[in-house]
Structure prediction request, 203 residues.
Amino acid sequence: MNNIVIKNLTVAYGELIVLQDFNASFGTGIHWIQGHNGSGKSTLLKALCGINPVNLGMVTIMDYDLVKQDIKAKSELCFVADKPEVYPFMTGIQFLKMVAKIKGVKLTQELYTWLDAINLTQYKDTEFSQMSFGTRRKFTLSTVFIGNPQVILLDEPFNGLDKNTIEQFELWLQKIKNEKCLLVVSHDTHLLEGLKNTVLVLD
Prediction:
């Protein structure tokens, strides 16, 4: 089974068509999306998670139609945007608990172990307005550990991360790359070379 199936997808901003009649399918593994700026990489990820509306075509996530079965489809995925847009008054732990509540799950020991590994536990009660960009990024990246998503969409996941967090994340990617479907947009080519299964180039 393909975790993601895209058929004749068209996404537009007003009269500007960014993706047109786009077709692709992705199974388990790490799939690296390449392309020049403006080629539609981030637009594609946002369409696959329902942020950008699908103007034409169809997207299925784990066999659930993203439009007709949106709640079930979205329950199977996690999207980490390139910029951590979070309520500034929220603390780190409040944010993670909010994501868990939306997904209808509880925070797991695996998540808390991850927070310890990347030195994030000390910031769990800090408001996002008081965090550095890198710390905010680490909290949003940590959502991949909530709800056991089978499809993970990552937009420039390594931006703003310190060396230890990158190393820990690479270890996790190696561990789960044969279990989940990951679409990754990243300019850090050297970090993905040993991890990727396929490369999709948008032009």
Observations:
- The first helix runs from residue 41 to 48.
